[in-house]
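>> received
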Amino acid sequence: MADRMGQSPQTEAALISRARAKDQEAFGALVGRYEVTLLHVLMPIVGERERARDLVQESILKAWENLHTYVDTHRFSTWFFRIGVNLAISHKRRAKVEHRIFEEHASDPGAGTDPGPSALEALARDEEARAVRLAVGRLPERYANVVRMRYVEGLSCAEIADRLDTTPNTVSLVLFRAKQRLREELSSP
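>> returned
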């Protein structure tokens, strides 16, 4: 009996088993079945084809790293798509914060005379932006450069890869590791 994607459950189970044994070719065949569909699922969430492609690559990396957590009672596609959707939702949340942090303030914060909540909010945003800039500055140069190209210049992973003469997958991996380091930096007291 074939599933909705036209694949035999036994074939998929065999690929999952081989992938769990760190067979990258089997894992590639497994996620390759769902890459295009995941891209179409993520595009409406993030609103940009390039960002959706980046998130598909990040989903693949996350699935590879967490394959040991996959439970066989669920369809692999459901598990894989959940990873992608969660990443897309997190991306949307982070994008709002990052945009706020990295954007230049259009108005002069000293021009207002009201020291109320808006002045306090602006101060808090400035402190948050300063902490992020300092944390980025403490990253290894390769990580810091990729973070700046992605979030300050707004380049996609494909554009960064072209600039650095590497692959988008490599850029996604570097960006993933850089964000892990940033989270550690920013969460430590």
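>> The chain has two domains: 1-94, 115-189.
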